[in-house]
Amino acid sequence: MATPTLTRHRLDGALGPLLVDVRAAGRRDPAPAVVILHGFKGFKDWGMFPPFAERLARAGFSAIAPNLSGSGVDDSGSFVWPERFGHNTFSAELADVEGVVSALDRGDLGVPRPSTVGMVGHSRGGGVAILAAGRSPRIRALVTWAAVASVLRWTPEQIREWRARGRLDVQNVRTGEVLPLYPDVLDDVEHHGNRALDIKAAASALDIPWLLIHGEADEAVPVAEAHSLAGMARRDRVQLLEVPRAGHTFGAVHPFAGPTPALEQVFDASATFLSRYLS
Asked: For position 26, which CATH number holds?
């Protein structure tokens, strides 16, 4: 297998440019592709995502890692577009994901149309991946890490204050930046949460292999959400891997400081699963 190379691409996204990294060892013949989705306040270059994409590329996949257009983050990892972050919604992220899959099928990302497509999503990106897999017949295998089970993530008190102020302040703990979150995502959840954005309903309808991974000690998305999703899915299609004592990012930090035993387990299980079901 040749050494993977990295190319960077731009697509039109729901809220602005959609930045996409493609890592692939072979670019002449069709290969399976895996789309890797970051979560809330995440981005394609955060901590664990580049080394995981590199591992997939070395295993023969085309690893596709986008910065969704509402991430607000550029190729340097900086929040240079806070207004896009503020106006981001679940529906916008779904539209972006569909745009990435369509670009793959058109051969617009520097690799031939993939033979099959898988998806890996972390946290909020895991919920979006579940929704996307329910909508796209091109997605033939799914892996979620610490996936959310619902798009409604705020208390009634938070929502009342949010509506009254017209924004919710979100702190980026890593940089200390305070980012605005406008009511767009609330409107989106209220209008579509019981239909197009119902993650549990999408989980119950999935008919593809699904590996659901969650840290036992996740401080951001309780492991109970993983059990809820697994309980909705078809028993012959889902595998639940609960990682002992692991938190929301399985010990990974940004900048990346190397894999932890928990993260190694996640990488190993994910790569093995995708290799089994994508060809």
From this structure: 3.40.50.1820
Model pTM?
0.98
Give the structural domain span for 16. Answer: 5-150+193-277
CB 182 within 8 A of CB 169: no
If you average pLDDT over residues 122-135, what whole number do you get?
98
Interior angle at CA 172, CA 171 and CA 175, nearest 5: 125
The string of pLDDT tens digits covering residues 184-203 is: 999 999 999 889 999 999 99
